[in-house]
């Protein structure tokens, strides 16, 4: 590991690690597992279960991937990446990595950590959403926490399924359809003592369904946690202009171009990371105009207040938006 301690342009990443690919292999169709190590064999920074690293795959371009391996002074970081044929190229870049190549990554960050005083943890994974659950399970086993897992995946698409089964023993149930997930999860949601928390990572519809089932069973929102993949394919949207409140500068935002990209193209620094409306890194304050919120980061209350925007995915409703920049 080499601590570069640099600021990556437009990324807001203040500490970057340069690591070497030790292993790269296909886990299941479309999912590649990559193991990164320090060239000198030193231990890597410890991380909180559910953490991710941002992989720098092009100048100013990063994709975030959950860490799947051990979290305490690990000798490697491991990520599993699903190939997105319609993405911007980050997952393809990871799929093309070969042993011996060097990769720049951020230090681990966590927005999906377990609640340490919870009495029981229900972990619900859908597809590649299994990746953060692996570190949750490893930590639960290490610290003796009570947990169970429901893993939903399609036939032959179960990345890490065997590894997870070996870790969990009889504490895992696998399903393959939304109906089977509902059948497996609803009884658990309806029969849980205070202090149980549920965590979901997977496609947005699955996350929404689990949250709705929990609400119907009387769960308070504070015991329901989730991490989404991203906002998904979005329409190109209408063109609009962003006025920078401090300078009066007008930044045109064409259809098909994000507000974030338009700002960066004008040389305006905006910290950003996932570019999928998930991480919250690029959040900007809004002075005027109405926002078409497309992100998965802001709460319903924050969206209703209209004073913030995630420029990586969200746009103006009308033809003008004024920003606190």
UniProtKB/TrEMBL annotation:
It holds the Pfam family DmmA-like_N. Residues 14-115 form the FAD-binding FR-type domain. Its cofactor is FAD. Residues 240-325 form the 2Fe-2S ferredoxin-type domain. Keywords: 2Fe-2S, Flavoprotein, Iron, Iron-sulfur, Metal-binding, Oxidoreductase. Gene3D superfamilies: 3.10.20.30, Nucleotide-binding domain of ferredoxin-NADP reductase (FNR) module (3.40.50.80), Translation factors (2.40.30.10). This is Oxidoreductase. It comes from Rhodococcus pseudokoreensis. The lineage of its organism: Bacteria, Bacillati, Actinomycetota, Actinomycetes, Mycobacteriales.
